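Format notes (please read before filing issues)

Several people have asked whether sequences and C-alpha cells are stored in separate files. They are not. Every record keeps both together, in the order shown below: the sequence lines, then the C-alpha cell lines. Line labels are part of the format and must not be stripped during preprocessing.
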Amino acid sequence: MDHSYQAWQDVLAEEFFGRQHAGHPTLFYVDDDVERDLRHGYGLEEPLPSCVSRFLRLGTADPYSALDEYRWRQWKQDKQGVPAFLPLLACSVIAASRMVNDLNHRATTYHARFSELLTGDDKQLGSQNYEPISRMWQVLASWQHSQRGARGLCTLPAPADLPSNRSMIGFAQSQALLSGADRSFLPRLFRSLREHGTTWPLPGDALLAQIEIRGMEQYLSKNFRNALGENDFRPLLAKLMGNYAASWDGSDELVPAGVTRAELVVRLDAGRLSWVARLRSAEQPERIDLAGGVVLERLGDTAYYEVTGLPAPDANTLSKGIRRNGDGLVLSRPAASVLVLARDDVLGVWAGTDGFRPGEAHVVLAAPAARRDVQRLLDRAATSGRSADTGKLAAWVPQGWSLHKPVVFDDTVTLRAALKEVQGAVGLLEPPLQFKLRLEGGLRLAPSLDRSLYLRGGEPQVVLPDTAEGTGVLLVDGKERPELRKAVAAGRPAPLAVLRLEPGRHTVSYAGATIEFATADQALVEPKVDTVCGFTVVDGAASTTPSVLDEGALPAGVTGADCSGVTSRDAETTMELCRRDADEVLFAAADGRLWTLRAPDQPDWWAERLPDTPAPLRFEAGFHGIGGWLLERRNGRWRGRPVNPGTPKPTNTGNPQAWAQAVLNAQQASGEPSWAAYVQAAKELNR
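Then the structure lines:
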C-alpha cells in the first residue's frame, strides 16, 4: 500500500468522520463532483478510483483482500482510528450515485457501474464478489457507534432495515440518498414544517408525506426523488430524514463547518429538572463561557458539564428547543414533544436518553400533542408503566405534560414493531442498532491485565447483532443454553451470569462470530502473553539486538532487566536526541525491523530534587550495534536523520510490510542518497 492510498484515507476520515461532526448525523456521501473537489482541495494527485483499483486482486474469490489486510495492519497500530478501507467504500458510494438510466444500464443496475468505475470493465466485479464490502460497511457502522457520537452519529441502516434484494449494496445506496445540496436544504424544509405542525420532530413517514403534499421534492436531488418513489427504499429514506429532523437544533446549517456541538441533556435529581451538557470531543476544557452569560463547568473527569445561566427545563424550553453560541462551539437541544429519562451510569441519576433501552426502567414525559402516540406505543409494547400517573403530579413535571413511570420494555422485537407501527412523536426512539456480537456490563476483575476477565458470578451480558434473518443460534462454550432462549427470542441482552459458569476461559458464538472471555474468583492472574521479546544467548553471550524468542530460545534467553551471568558482545553505542513534542518517533533499521520510540515519563523525584530545572525538550535514545534511520513526525511533516544507516536489506526478522509502509509514508523525510536507498527498498517490498 503506498502513501497515496493512505492520503485518501486520511482525507476521507477527516472530511466525513472528523470530530467537527460530534453529535450530528454523518452521511458518507461521495459522488464524482465531491471526489473531484476533495482531490483538488487537498492537493491529491491521483483520482480516488484509480488509487483503489491498483490494489485489487482481480480474478480471485476476494478481490478486496489486500485492502482488508491493510485495514487490519492499521488497526493493530491504532485501535480507535477510522477503519482503513474508506477509499474502497467511497468508491462504492460513487457507484450508487451513478445509478440512473443511461444508454448502457438501467437505474437499478449497481454492480456493473461499480466494476466499470474500478476496472473499466462492467463485468470484472460482480455481485458474487461484493460480500466483503458489505461486511466492511458493518464494521464502519460498529466503529462509529463505539465512538458514542464523537465522530458523528451513524446513519447506516441495520441489516434488518435493508430490502432483501439490496442486502449487500443497500449500505452504499443509503449514503447516496441525500446529497450535500439536499442536506443544505433540510433546515429550510424543517423550519417551514415546524411552523405549521403540532409536534416536533415529525417522524420520517410524515416528513416524506409533507414533502410530496407541498411539492418540495422538486428542490431535492434525483437520487432523493428516485428513492421517494421506490417502495423498497422509501422506508430507509424516511428513517434517514427522521434522524436528521430529530437532531436539528433550529440553526441554518445541520453541521456548521469546524463548530463543535455540546448537547443539552435533561437531568432529574432531587425532585427537580435541570440541564447538563455533554461534549463529545477530544478536547474537554474545564470551563466554557457562551453568549448570554451561560457557563459550562466540567463535572469531574467526565464528558458532562454543569450548566448555569439557562432557564430550567419546562414545557416551553422542551417544546421549542434551545441554542446558545460560543467560540467554535454551539450548545443546543432540538425541540421535542416527548422526553425519555433513564438511569445514567456516569451521572448516577435519571437523565435524557436518545432511545428506549430494553429491560431497563424509564420515565416518559409527553406534551399534550404527543400524548396519544405515547399511549398507543405503551399499550402495544410496554411491560409496565402503561397507565399515566393521574394523581397529583410532582412539581417538576412540565405543565400540561403527562407522566408514565416506570416504563419497561422486556421484548425488543415487540418494541421495534410497535415503534414502526405507531410512528408519530415516538417513532425516533428506537433502541440503538447493533452491528456485531459484543459483551456489555459485567464486573471486570483486572482491566489493566485482561479486559476480558470477569468475576465469577459477575459475567457480562451478550448483545446480539441486528440481523435480517434472525436464524442464528447463541452458543456458550459450543452449546445452546435453554436459560438464555427467552432473552434471545425477545431481542434483549442475554445475561451470562445465570449460567453459573466455572472459572476459566469461555466462548460465546452467534451467526459465525465468536467472543472469548474468562472468569475467576480472584484477580491474581498473569497477563496473557502472545509473544516474548528478549535477547538470545549463544555460548554465554547475549545478542546485541532484541528479537521475538521462540520456545527453544525462551529458557536461555534474557528478558526484562535480568542480565545476571550474561556478557554482551562489544558493540559501539550511538546516542541520539529525540524531540518530546514529536507526534511520532520511529526507527527504521537497515534489516527491516521497525520500532516506535516513546518519550520516558518524568520520574517522581524530578520536581523534589531539581525544582528549578524545566522539563527537557528532548529525550535520549541509545542504538547499540544497529543502524538505520531515525524518523520524527511533527506538524504533519516527517524529518529523518541517519544512525549508522548502512545498506538496507529488509529480511523476515521483523515485519517487513510495516517497515515498508513506514518508510514510504516518510519518503519526503530527507534528500540524502542513503535515505533514497531505503525508499527504493520499501517500494520493492511493496510490489
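For reference, the curators noted about this record: DSSP finds 19 helices and 32 strands in the chain. The radius of gyration is 29 Å.
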